[in-house]
Amino acid sequence: MFHHRPHLAVATPAFRIRDERFADVAAREALLDAAFGPERFAKTCERLREGRRPAEGLALVAEGADGRLIGTVRLWHVAAGSAGAALMLGPIAVDGAARSLGLGAALMHAALGRAARLGHRAVVLVGDEPWYRRFGFAADLTRGLDLPGPVDRARFLGLALVDGALDGAVGMVAATGAVEALAVAA
Questions:
Q1: Which CATH number goes with the domain that contains 26?
Q2: Could you tell me the pLDDT band of residue 13, with boundaries at 50, 70 and 90?
Q3: Structurally, how many domains does the chain consist of?
């Protein structure tokens, strides 16, 4: 189970974490392109995010002391098989020049703490297990779950925000979030 650490601040002299705004889209996309390259759109988790809006209140950015966007994390509504409603975390990215600030961990704590306060029960993601382990993520929680595409099983991780939320979960992870409204040319 995730335990929020309230002593961790979400604002330091070096950065401030806040809700993402529409004006952040271009900077966020540039940060994600720099972090993951164009192949980020081919990843299995992208199929679950494609055409969807992130979960309400769970799209966060970090801005540096100069106001420049230096970090991002978003969570998305999914159904985690038999476990039901859950969130999928990702992508999370930090500007290369800001990686020594503890910003990635601060973004994770802010996002997971907010998700727990909003009543969400579980989070899944595909990522580097040694890094995510410190936040309580483990591969054994997703053992019975599948994603709609190829995935390295050792990188498919889960976190119970509520005790037992992913216990015995089986089945496919599917997108359930609100569909993004598309602008239609007249």
A1: 3.40.630.30
A2: confident
A3: 1
